[in-house]
């Protein structure tokens, strides 16, 4: 499959840049702990919805890639290219000890990256109905990114990073595979979907933790912000 | 008097690794032909063979060799060879007849996610000889140690070092015995094997003055380490004993539920299952509990024409009381009358639904 360096490339690079510079969602009233709690619940629900959507989408997409990608026991070693995709895998103790800010930031960064890569994948799919499904999914995923940003703002946390060392390597043009390396490209797609699925599972757990902890934290933060 | 050879056998009898024992324990496959030599005795020497103390008929001998054809489990035992005249023990062995291992059955599961997961195994059929099991767990490039448990013996556990892994686990179990070996391998994702234990302390109680309600309470399984970050959701099923069709309720919050559509006066059987909110599979059903909704004590049996609700015929147990009785009841039991009328109507609906499902 040819990777066109022209129009679609330009578009998604622009999109990636745009996403990174998302305007901050106006912070809710800092004492509005109920608001933060609701946003977290909404974000949690979004991750569940996306996870269900992804199951169908991934099944279709892997069939489109064909064997061995659609085989249930397919268990390839992780290739270095795939390391550009942010991994949900984390040391157990480290994950438990993440503070709320770090936990949210990790989710935000991950989905922003993943969304970028997904949009890149979208541009090259030959089948129209699959492209449409991918497009829908990307919109939903963007909704999740915005939702996470909303939670962070309502809790007074700054949105992580802008374009710089953390931006997706593809935006710098390191990404494109030569048209002859079709298998490697499919492998990238496989790992992207897998990592996305794992992130959605992880986010459900992340937001569970946040759900329990946020109301008191929101009060503390608002007090700190007001100089108490 | 027993020779030192015999004592040596008693000490090392079944240990496979004991070198002495190799001379004293012999493993053979079912169906094999076994020839035993009487130690260093010549072929034409006069000997007597015994098995478990009983003499063996000469027809099984080929000179001084003992020949057992097409051995089966009944041939297992202690074989001894004595020199003809002196009755000196010249050779002794314990024969164990068995089979090489069939492919073992292996499964892994996490009932205490995200702490650990365990793998357990068994052989589909016995080998009748001692087996050793060796398990290897590979996660990506890393080999993990599966810590064996004392009880049960065929189980080991692994601590999760990382969570939310995209790389599958590959577990291989090898079974070896003196007659052969076999192995099996399974691969799985971290999330796929999460299956909690069933909920505990399930209790169902009637609700006073509510003839159609049952209050059910339960606890999280005690093996689930962190219900705060990894909440469980529950599935409750209930039916009156006299019906086969279960009703189901899925609950994403809390460890209690009130059934509000129970049939008045009927004994119910209730079970609960648990699942991590987001991943894995449902637990087995909890122990079943029984409960009957509250009913008013029949105080006016002699003055009222109403007969007690019939439960004797199981297929037609929803015989509606005649309408006159409902009117009579209204004087006595306010909501109860409604309950009876409703239960009758519900019974019809259920019967209709039951027909649809057949």
UniProtKB/TrEMBL annotation, chain A:
<dbReference type="GO" id="GO:0030183">
    <property type="term" value="P:B cell differentiation"/>
</dbReference>
<comment type="subunit">
    <text>Forms a heteromeric complex with cardiotrophin-like cytokine CRLF1/CLF-1; the CRLF1-CLCF1 complex is a ligand for the ciliary neurotrophic factor receptor/CNTFR. The CRLF1-CLCF1 heterodimer binds SORL1 (via N-terminal ectodomain); within this complex, the interaction is mediated predominantly by the CRLF1 moiety. The tripartite signaling complex formed by CRLF1, CLCF1 and CNTFR also binds SORL1.</text>
</comment>
<dbReference type="GO" id="GO:0097059">
    <property type="term" value="C:CNTFR-CLCF1 complex"/>
</dbReference>
<keyword id="KW-0732">Signal</keyword>
<dbReference type="GO" id="GO:0043524">
    <property type="term" value="P:negative regulation of neuron apoptotic process"/>
</dbReference>
<dbReference type="GO" id="GO:0007259">
    <property type="term" value="P:cell surface receptor signaling pathway via JAK-STAT"/>
</dbReference>
<dbReference type="GO" id="GO:0048711">
    <property type="term" value="P:positive regulation of astrocyte differentiation"/>
</dbReference>
<dbReference type="GO" id="GO:0005615">
    <property type="term" value="C:extracellular space"/>
</dbReference>
<dbReference type="GO" id="GO:0030890">
    <property type="term" value="P:positive regulation of B cell proliferation"/>
</dbReference>
<keyword id="KW-0202">Cytokine</keyword>
<feature type="signal peptide">
    <location>
        <begin position="1"/>
        <end position="27"/>
    </location>
</feature>
<comment type="similarity">
    <text>Belongs to the IL-6 superfamily.</text>
</comment>
<dbReference type="GO" id="GO:0097058">
    <property type="term" value="C:CRLF-CLCF1 complex"/>
</dbReference>
<keyword id="KW-0964">Secreted</keyword>
<dbReference type="GO" id="GO:0005125">
    <property type="term" value="F:cytokine activity"/>
</dbReference>
<dbReference type="Pfam" id="PF06875">
    <property type="entry name" value="PRF"/>
</dbReference>
<comment type="function">
    <text>In complex with CRLF1, forms a heterodimeric neurotropic cytokine that plays a crucial role during neuronal development. Also stimulates B-cells. Binds to and activates the ILST/gp130 receptor.</text>
</comment>
<dbReference type="GO" id="GO:0048295">
    <property type="term" value="P:positive regulation of isotype switching to IgE isotypes"/>
</dbReference>
<dbReference type="InterPro" id="IPR010681">
    <property type="entry name" value="PRF/CT"/>
</dbReference>
<dbReference type="GO" id="GO:0005127">
    <property type="term" value="F:ciliary neurotrophic factor receptor binding"/>
</dbReference>
<keyword id="KW-0325">Glycoprotein</keyword>
<protein>
    <recommendedName>
        <fullName>Cardiotrophin-like cytokine factor 1</fullName>
    </recommendedName>
</protein>
UniProtKB/TrEMBL annotation, chain B:
<dbReference type="Pfam" id="PF24031">
    <property type="entry name" value="FN3_IL27B_N"/>
</dbReference>
<keyword id="KW-0812">Transmembrane</keyword>
<dbReference type="GO" id="GO:0004921">
    <property type="term" value="F:interleukin-11 receptor activity"/>
</dbReference>
<comment type="similarity">
    <text>Belongs to the type I cytokine receptor family. Type 3 subfamily.</text>
</comment>
<feature type="domain" description="Ig-like">
    <location>
        <begin position="31"/>
        <end position="81"/>
    </location>
</feature>
<feature type="domain" description="Fibronectin type-III">
    <location>
        <begin position="198"/>
        <end position="298"/>
    </location>
</feature>
<keyword id="KW-0325">Glycoprotein</keyword>
<feature type="transmembrane region" description="Helical">
    <location>
        <begin position="332"/>
        <end position="357"/>
    </location>
</feature>
<dbReference type="GO" id="GO:0043524">
    <property type="term" value="P:negative regulation of neuron apoptotic process"/>
</dbReference>
<dbReference type="GO" id="GO:0009897">
    <property type="term" value="C:external side of plasma membrane"/>
</dbReference>
<dbReference type="InterPro" id="IPR003598">
    <property type="entry name" value="Ig_sub2"/>
</dbReference>
<dbReference type="InterPro" id="IPR050379">
    <property type="entry name" value="Type-I_Cytokine_Rcpt"/>
</dbReference>
<dbReference type="InterPro" id="IPR013783">
    <property type="entry name" value="Ig-like_fold"/>
</dbReference>
<dbReference type="InterPro" id="IPR003530">
    <property type="entry name" value="Hematopoietin_rcpt_L_F3_CS"/>
</dbReference>
<keyword id="KW-0472">Membrane</keyword>
<dbReference type="InterPro" id="IPR056621">
    <property type="entry name" value="FN3_IL27B_N"/>
</dbReference>
<keyword id="KW-0336">GPI-anchor</keyword>
<dbReference type="GO" id="GO:0008284">
    <property type="term" value="P:positive regulation of cell population proliferation"/>
</dbReference>
<keyword id="KW-1015">Disulfide bond</keyword>
<keyword id="KW-0732">Signal</keyword>
<dbReference type="GO" id="GO:0016324">
    <property type="term" value="C:apical plasma membrane"/>
</dbReference>
<dbReference type="GO" id="GO:0019970">
    <property type="term" value="F:interleukin-11 binding"/>
</dbReference>
